[in-house]
Amino acid sequence: MSDFKQKCEKFSEILNRYNKIHSLTNYKNFDEQINDSIAILDMIEISANKAIDIGSGAGFPALFLAMKLNECEWHLYEPNHKKSAFLTLAKIELGLENVIIHSTKLQDGDKFIVDLITSRALMKVADLVKISRGFFNENTKFLLYKGSSVTEELNGFNAKVLNKHNRNYILMDKVC
């Protein structure tokens, strides 16, 4: 069994245990969410030294991208303390040394430039770009996990839309 698969099984155990007490997510099949988190890696090559995930919630997609892109330093921003506590627990139990949890909103954090910014269905694209100011430059890429009605949000952005099942993966660059 691969290290990734073992970590995914352990993650599911941790989330099930945590969910019973804290009701973190309504997802019943974590495998679907894990596959959704990493499906983009079969479509495009992603390389980054430093990345942030905005609104990390229960860890989809950031924890799984961090497992796959383990040479990258991942900063997960989650202001909900129940969720950030879960992320910290998962990080420790899974041994994800490349993950740093920030229990704050992105816009309240210290600014630093990253290579990649990810987020899953958190807010409209323009709003997400706005709160990300100070974290990106002309070389930073955005990878956004969106639903079916995203096209009107992309006006004015250099965006590529990749689709798998009901998920639109939005890859944007040159946002500056």
UniProtKB/TrEMBL annotation:
<protein>
    <recommendedName>
        <fullName>Ribosomal RNA small subunit methyltransferase G</fullName>
        <ecNumber>2.1.1.-</ecNumber>
    </recommendedName>
</protein>
<keyword id="KW-0489">Methyltransferase</keyword>
<dbReference type="GO" id="GO:0008168">
    <property type="term" value="F:methyltransferase activity"/>
</dbReference>
<keyword id="KW-0808">Transferase</keyword>
<dbReference type="InterPro" id="IPR003682">
    <property type="entry name" value="rRNA_ssu_MeTfrase_G"/>
</dbReference>
<feature type="binding site">
    <location>
        <begin position="106"/>
        <end position="107"/>
    </location>
    <ligand>
        <name>S-adenosyl-L-methionine</name>
    </ligand>
</feature>
<feature type="binding site">
    <location>
        <position position="55"/>
    </location>
    <ligand>
        <name>S-adenosyl-L-methionine</name>
    </ligand>
</feature>
<comment type="function">
    <text>Specifically methylates the N7 position of a guanine in 16S rRNA.</text>
</comment>
<feature type="binding site">
    <location>
        <position position="120"/>
    </location>
    <ligand>
        <name>S-adenosyl-L-methionine</name>
    </ligand>
</feature>
<dbReference type="Pfam" id="PF02527">
    <property type="entry name" value="GidB"/>
</dbReference>
<keyword id="KW-0698">rRNA processing</keyword>
<keyword id="KW-0949">S-adenosyl-L-methionine</keyword>
<keyword id="KW-0963">Cytoplasm</keyword>
<feature type="binding site">
    <location>
        <position position="60"/>
    </location>
    <ligand>
        <name>S-adenosyl-L-methionine</name>
    </ligand>
</feature>
<dbReference type="InterPro" id="IPR029063">
    <property type="entry name" value="SAM-dependent_MTases_sf"/>
</dbReference>
<dbReference type="GO" id="GO:0032259">
    <property type="term" value="P:methylation"/>
</dbReference>
<comment type="similarity">
    <text>Belongs to the methyltransferase superfamily. RNA methyltransferase RsmG family.</text>
</comment>
